[in-house]
Write a structure and sequence with these properties.
2 helices; single chain; mainly alpha; elongated; 85% helix
């Protein structure tokens, strides 16, 4: 049972590290820009 708890903790730590690295590299602005472009194309403006 302790192995599962350790594995879960390591997985959560890896996810958190990936989130922090992505945020530091500017991924949120990239994702928002792409989403806005897709939405504008859907309604026929872009």
């Amino acid at each position: 049972m302790k192995a599962w708890r350790t594995a879960g903790f390591l997985l959560a730590l890896l996810c958190l590290a990936s989130f922090v690295i992505g945020y530091a590299l500017g991924d949120p602005s990239t994702v928002f820009r792409k989403a806005a472009t897709v939405c504008l194309e859907c309604i026929g403006v872009g």
